[in-house]
Amino acid sequence: MLKLDSHPAGRHFLQIPGPSPVPDRILRAMSYPTIDHRGPEFGALGLKVLDGIKKIFKTGQPVVIYPASGTGAWEAALCNTLSPGDTVLMYETGHFATLWKKMAESLGLKPEFLGMPGIEGWRRGVQADMIEKRLRDDTQHTIKAVCVVHNETSTGVTSDIAAVRRAVDAAAHPALLMVDTISGLASADYRHDEWGVDVTVSGSQKGLMLPPGISFNAVSEKAREASKHARLPRAFWDWADIIEMNKQGYWPYTPNTNLLYGLSEALDMILGEGLDNVFARHQRLAAACRAAVAAWGLEIQCADPSVYSPVLTGVMTPEGVDADAVRKLIYEHFDMSLGTGLGKLKGRMFRIGHLGDCNDLTLMAALTGCEMGLKLAGIELKGSGVAAAMDYLTSHVAKPALKAAA
Amino acid sequence: MLKLDSHPAGRHFLQIPGPSPVPDRILRAMSYPTIDHRGPEFGALGLKVLDGIKKIFKTGQPVVIYPASGTGAWEAALCNTLSPGDTVLMYETGHFATLWKKMAESLGLKPEFLGMPGIEGWRRGVQADMIEKRLRDDTQHTIKAVCVVHNETSTGVTSDIAAVRRAVDAAAHPALLMVDTISGLASADYRHDEWGVDVTVSGSQKGLMLPPGISFNAVSEKAREASKHARLPRAFWDWADIIEMNKQGYWPYTPNTNLLYGLSEALDMILGEGLDNVFARHQRLAAACRAAVAAWGLEIQCADPSVYSPVLTGVMTPEGVDADAVRKLIYEHFDMSLGTGLGKLKGRMFRIGHLGDCNDLTLMAALTGCEMGLKLAGIELKGSGVAAAMDYLTSHVAKPALKAAA
Amino acid sequence: MLKLDSHPAGRHFLQIPGPSPVPDRILRAMSYPTIDHRGPEFGALGLKVLDGIKKIFKTGQPVVIYPASGTGAWEAALCNTLSPGDTVLMYETGHFATLWKKMAESLGLKPEFLGMPGIEGWRRGVQADMIEKRLRDDTQHTIKAVCVVHNETSTGVTSDIAAVRRAVDAAAHPALLMVDTISGLASADYRHDEWGVDVTVSGSQKGLMLPPGISFNAVSEKAREASKHARLPRAFWDWADIIEMNKQGYWPYTPNTNLLYGLSEALDMILGEGLDNVFARHQRLAAACRAAVAAWGLEIQCADPSVYSPVLTGVMTPEGVDADAVRKLIYEHFDMSLGTGLGKLKGRMFRIGHLGDCNDLTLMAALTGCEMGLKLAGIELKGSGVAAAMDYLTSHVAKPALKAAA
Amino acid sequence: MLKLDSHPAGRHFLQIPGPSPVPDRILRAMSYPTIDHRGPEFGALGLKVLDGIKKIFKTGQPVVIYPASGTGAWEAALCNTLSPGDTVLMYETGHFATLWKKMAESLGLKPEFLGMPGIEGWRRGVQADMIEKRLRDDTQHTIKAVCVVHNETSTGVTSDIAAVRRAVDAAAHPALLMVDTISGLASADYRHDEWGVDVTVSGSQKGLMLPPGISFNAVSEKAREASKHARLPRAFWDWADIIEMNKQGYWPYTPNTNLLYGLSEALDMILGEGLDNVFARHQRLAAACRAAVAAWGLEIQCADPSVYSPVLTGVMTPEGVDADAVRKLIYEHFDMSLGTGLGKLKGRMFRIGHLGDCNDLTLMAALTGCEMGLKLAGIELKGSGVAAAMDYLTSHVAKPALKAAA
């Protein structure tokens, strides 16, 4: 039997930017016995979640649900729309943008990787003007797709997708627009249709509050048209059969039934709360978290306040301090997991997740754990981040969102 | 389906002094399907929990487990040992001592209620010398039992049971010694055999980290002897048949099977951590909590530092402040439940539970919730209790009690 | 961790007449974290279950819910209404009627035990004429209560409670009518108000499909009036405070919160199916089971077809065959639990439960287990009970009760 | 909230050949909160399951675990080892072999599809001599891989993989041997190393008793060598990074954490029972099932008794009877799911799963459901399959495999 928690008592605080804490309600829903994926009850479940997930992406177009984790959905976006040797314009916002680019290379595409030099690009969102310029220069329309990350999980920086859309339009370029919002969906506002995104990639283990294991492609008409001519080999990821069978609520191969139970519950929770309320909640907690970082006198990884992430906050440790040693100390003393620094930021920062099933006191617990851990690590702090966060929260009181008990 | 939580997201903080938060591990164990309470597997389960629970009471004598909540175990203690009209010496430590006394009256006993005048007795533990004096005066041995509460849940005051034992012995009085440690067991050190207690009463929903629904009588040889002559009517509560059938791991009537699953798991957790570690953990968190209260400039209900409870801390609100209004505000804004003031303390205090499945960050979350709530309620605080508690915890670092992951 | 099932694979078949199999849906509901039993969500839960349970008893009067198993509710019925030395007329239908009578003795009452001689009374229901005769003879109204069992779990015999009511009325006797329907409720039709019952006793682990641990007293106005003068000592079981606090959805002492979650779910399930459908389902399965027993050439314990229990069927083994040895063999080979013979029937019969969360195939599985076990035990069977039961089920097709999937 | 079961009471019987019924124990394990997939506890979990799963495949070589369902693992086997345009020799045993072949085409490979004409090949296992002959003819070694299905889920036929290995060896052909044992693993004996398989493909939702969502590639040294030169594009499915990171118990991208909890539990269960015991249990139930089909006078889809599947039995309905209408009737009346006829067998057969968490009474329940359903459908049966199965089970008594209760 599983006895995973190495700490003797109390609840683990999972404050990484995903997987986010899975609510009990969802864990209970997922423990419903697996049913026949060809039976009538499954069909009803399928139709429900396929309809509900569209509301989360703010789209009227199909959303493909894969029984695979988010990296697979990256691959699906590329191999359904592109052909070997195609040029794709990608933008370096951080570690995950870099991984997506590497994947494009592995699949035989030719990614061009735009971005700002050094670490600077990892502190700001996508610069839409750079994209526009590059597309204008591509008079031959060699570039088949523009790929950007909406919420860069490795840094805590979001990007203005509407601006990217405007850039593509301004350049009058026919490239597809593909966006990864794996960690942004259901935490930050996202509008697949309004922003004219052709393929949006997402996953289950972030704002949807599910365990990892299912992932998504929201697909525009233009993308489906492109898929008819795309020649990258594909089978498992192929949209056509899935979209066709989804009309009845089924899948061409065995779906991840118990995660779909969880998705059904998550949709009830999120749509029940209301997406705007969900976004406002994330913004409030993120602001309180940043107030704490500022009070500590530490630097926030995101250098552009207009694109602070509502999902996570990247905290840079002072020169000479190994951020992973601090994380380890906090884990051992306070039973809390924080996100590590990835790629170029290895050892230089830690990431505080404040997404999904999180509330004021969860955040405050996390911040006390950070503050105590930073002190135990011998780091001089300018002031109490905890006090600053409490000030923020008490001066920005959430309308007590009490629902009627049922 | 149950959707009880009226708050839209995040985990409720249950910081009342019981029911304490039930660990997921126990909830999962309790969801094992109910089995035949006369079958061989049940017998093995029964023997396991009957043996393990003795270690928690620190006794080699029988512990009777009732499929009933704690109030029933109070009644069991009385009706197994006493006869109509018997005089019992009880001591007023607070609301629960008062309720036990009322029960004795309801059952046709004659309780004498010792204690200090007014609210003073509710701020201190049992004064053993008062008991000794009363027993010495009872030369006719009219008093059949002395009943005291070990950890008064309504106030956050413990009592020195060893001292009460010495008092009875010093008076050379034959009265039975009965102790309620419903909220003390498995959080505060308790020694049924060493302290010469005749009947110890406890319940499931506090230090044992279980939902309410089972309760206990640990029973001395002297108490069992007394039960042979006790004439209060009894059937459901009768020890004799239960103790007899328990020898094979069974009960004379249907036991509360799924709570016994939970008890089995709780015993694995508590005995696996080690009772001394469990007690030290409670003491440390309680001290941090009191540091916070002191820093706020509020008064702790317990006026005698030598008997501060490791289970809960009673916090008095300033004159004119309705403690229940503060509790309601905290519940609505911060999704945290605190204990109300009971009986004589109605509206004058709130109680912070820090027992059972609680760790540093859970406590800190609770204290930030209190501090923010007190501020929102307009109460002037002397300083930051949260900062004081963090100071305490970082200067009294728990040995990082990491177990090997399995 | 619990690994209770001693069989390596497949699901245990719990075919005892209670605890009945707990549906997954209820186990999941019960795994909701324990909440504050004084908070607003609890109040809403309390009001819901207190209202719903009345529908199950078919009463408009209060139903008291105890955090204790069914034996406790027997005691509650007696001690709330009677005084030491009171005469109560009880009727011997089987082992449980006998235990209730013993309890009355233990509590200081004077039970008179009506019934047919030897084992005969254990094969038939209550003979209302005997009760009427005895009451007519009691011109002094010494008898304070008539106590009968509605569905005798030890034998599989129900009793006609309406007839008992008529008998009391015919005798124009003021005695209270108290009925145990611990194993009948929510499986067999029961009408607390229409039948003029004063106290109905029931429990959770039978037709309500819950684990054991809560129990009930449905209470008439007359019973509540009687309780004002009843002098048996009582505290835990006292109706008055409970009924008073229940008005707001709360209890005077800690309720069994997680079982109330389960009760809430059970009410949704049972009332959703509709009580009449529930009863018809039980009747159909019981008839199929009896068809099997008849085909085997074995005798049914209940000798009066008009009072066959819809809850369980008692099967007598041939002379010289130890029924418990057969049960043990079936348990070991086929991972199925059957009920043992109790009291006078020890070793002479086994009991097949077909109540609660049971359907055609569960019953058929149980009957194949019995048939194979009987054969392995060397018992000569007249024919195939399994075939007979299949014939019954296919010729009495349940209206396919498909609900719309949600 | 999910209320998927459209039947009012009792447990659904999931008797399709996968997803198989998930044991409660595994559902409980899967409800453990999701943890940090980069933390120390995850590493310990990862190492445990990566080690344990090798025992199930009987291999000392790496087993890659994908956070994707089984169809993905098919693709992984192909794209890690082959290059565009490669010829692969596949063998038509049924619907799933046909789907795998279609996938090979979709990925740009050139499958040759061996097999017997018409429906005959769907009634027998792989004919190794046909493979040997084809390979001998391939003197240029154009064929890069031989792909066969070990347990064809659409028909209930297994294939002799050792014989296929011998055929390849006899032809002295360097082709890789790839085997799909998605539905055979942990139900039928399978020996990756001994049989010299290069890539074995499997999934979670069959003999491993898990929900769908993870899948496997067991990989030989020769296959890994081939992967260095294979040119089908790949990223998500690429073995190299996964095998490298698996050395520490981690994955290069987010794994399906909660299904790995389930896998950990499943390994404990299966290895605890012992693989040989697991296989014998499946063989015994399968034989009883076939005894039933024979007694009904219906034909078994598998025409070669030497390769009857221990996992499922395909039952052909009489000419003119729509098997799906029978399945629907059984579903509606008896709350049981059976497998449909797939591909060439659409409407001509149904499939009874008897794999995974199944025991004697589950099987008997399923067979009574079939027998009653067949009768209600108006099909003339030769005799009682239920009686025949009971005869088989009682004359082939399983050693009562009682474990000591813990």
Automatic annotation (TrEMBL), chains A, B, C, D:
Residue ranges crossing the lipid bilayer per the database entry: none
Known cofactor(s): pyridoxal 5'-phosphate
UniProt cross-references to Pfam families, sorted A to Z: Aminotran_5
Positions annotated to bind substrate: 351
GO biological processes: glycine biosynthetic process, by transamination of glyoxylate
Residues modified to N6-(pyridoxal phosphate)lysine: 206
Keyword Transferase: yes
Family of this protein: Belongs to the class-V pyridoxal-phosphate-dependent aminotransferase family.
Protein name, per record: Aminotransferase, class V
